[in-house]
Amino acid sequence: MSDYVYNLLKKHHSVRNFKKEVIPETHIKQLVEAGQSASTSSYLQTYSIIGINDPEIKMQLKEVSGQPYVVENGYLFVFIMDYYRHAIINENAEHDMATSFESAEGLLVGTIDATLAAQNIPATAEDMGYGIVYLGSLRNDVERVREILDLPEHTFPLFGMAMGIPADDENGSPKPRLPLEHVFHQNRYNHDKESQRQSLEAFDRTVSDYYSKRTNGKREETWSQQIAQFMSSKQRLDMLEQLNKAGFIKK
Ligand SMILES: Cc1cc2nc3c(=O)[nH]c(=O)nc-3n(C[C@H](O)[C@H](O)[C@H](O)COP(=O)(O)O)c2cc1C
Question: Which residue among 21, 123, 147, 189 is least crowded, i.e. fewest CB within 10 A of its CB?
Answer without folding.
Answer: 189
